[in-house]
């Protein structure tokens, strides 16, 4: 592993370490010192790469949102018919809800920050616009908006439920939302 200014991946390691710590301890449990130790970088690297903890957290959560949008793209990108798009949404919900608990925690930590702080609210708004735009390739905008809410809600419910609903129930919910009026 390279050190000093020759370490081209230092910034990415810091961002990854921040997300790992948030998943383990919550946003309230992170600090420059803990993140630097987790990333195995000098503490001074924190201020070299980021203007402060808020900048670091916002950039880390931006990367996380980009990751989730990429998951949307991966699922929806190959659909060429409405039926394939419905099945892709069903698969997406099950993929997101069956992901490691880390992703659920990161999403909820981001939503909590968004409820309190404008920059995170703006980040969430951009994230929602991007996911809805992907859905709009297959469904009209009002339907895409409802599907986006369904994806969020069912993902959360499936992730937290001791006996999550099966694929048939998810498929039915997606079909009802996407049915022609």
Automatic annotation (TrEMBL):
UniProt superkingdom: Bacteria
Record PROSITE patterns: HTH_TETR_2
SUPFAM superfamilies attached to this UniProt entry: Homeodomain-like (SSF46689), Tetracyclin repressor-like, C-terminal domain (SSF48498)
Name the UniProt record assigns to this protein: DNA-binding transcriptional regulator YbjK
GO molecular function: DNA binding
Annotated DNA-binding residue span(s): 31-50
Organism name: Streptomyces griseomycini
Keywords: DNA-binding, Transcription, Transcription regulation
Domain HTH tetR-type: 8-68
Pfam family, one: TetR_N
